[in-house]
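Budget justification aside, the reviewers requested a transparent look at the raw inputs and outputs of the sequence design task funded under Objective 1. We therefore reproduce one unedited record. The lines immediately below are the structure tokens for a 235-residue chain.
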């Protein structure tokens, strides 16, 4: 099934359960089971150590359509008047682009490019455009709010780099990672925090500062020494 809007994926099939991840327009999920109006799902594009098939959870069917022939050839890479989030997947249609539900939006220069074609920018440069975005636990939607690892997940995706969905996996699966002091980190590296395990991540800016989604502050610049440092990683 394909999302026609941002679709939250919850930890349990009940109202008020924690959000664990979020699909944006055009992303695909696999349905494993159905129970009382809830779908047990995995999200293949959101890699995780929890399930090799994709991020597991529960979703409501609202905002989902069956589209077996859905073959997107564009991904949204910049804020746009259509209000589509970064990472949304579209299908080129004449001078515009078609959404999975059938609606067509106008394409403007720089709004979208073929999936996997990296944006010529830095992680820090992209992230700075999201300063002030609200924090949302489990969120990955750049128009409504993200959590710290959701921000990293979407920004790295625009750079053509697929990273896992959660912060602990982002550190664990990095091709280069270090538990040494943060002074060895380079600008644009991922920098991680946590006391007994990784619980937070952001982009290192240099000079002892980093940018991340952080609690009630939303996307913000903080000092590395304001949080319990864990390590840094490079993709």
């Amino acid at each position: 099934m394909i999302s026609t809007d941002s679709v939250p994926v919850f930890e349990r099939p009940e109202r008020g359960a924690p959000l664990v991840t979020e699909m944006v327009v055009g992303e695909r999920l696999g349905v494993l089971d159905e129970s009382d109006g809830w779908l047990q799902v995995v999200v293949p594009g959101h890699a995780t150590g929890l399930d090799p098939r994709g991020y597991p959870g529960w979703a409501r069917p609202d905002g989902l359509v069956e589209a077996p022939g859905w073959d997107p050839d564009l991904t949204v890479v910049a804020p746009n008047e259509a209000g589509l989030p970064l990472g949304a997947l579209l299908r080129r249609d004449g001078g515009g682009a078609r959404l999975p539900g059938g609606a067509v939006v106008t394409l403007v220069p720089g709004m979208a490019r073929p999936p996997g074609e990296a944006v010529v920018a830095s992680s820090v440069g992209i992230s700075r455009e999201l300063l002030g975005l609200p924090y949302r636990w489990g969120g990955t939607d750049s128009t409504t709010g993200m959590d710290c690892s959701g921000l990293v997940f979407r920004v790295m995706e625009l750079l053509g780099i697929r990273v896992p969905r959660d912060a602990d996996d982002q550190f664990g699966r990095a091709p280069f990672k270090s538990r040494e002091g943060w002074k060895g980190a380079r600008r644009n590296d991922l920098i991680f925090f946590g006391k007994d395990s990784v619980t937070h991540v952001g982009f290192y800016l240099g000079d002892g500062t980093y940018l991340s989604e952080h609690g009630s502050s939303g996307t913000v610049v903080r000092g590395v020494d304001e949080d319990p440092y864990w390590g840094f990683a490079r993709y």
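The chain has a mean pLDDT of 95. The first strand starts at residue 2 and ends at 3. Computational costs for records of this kind are itemized in the attached budget.
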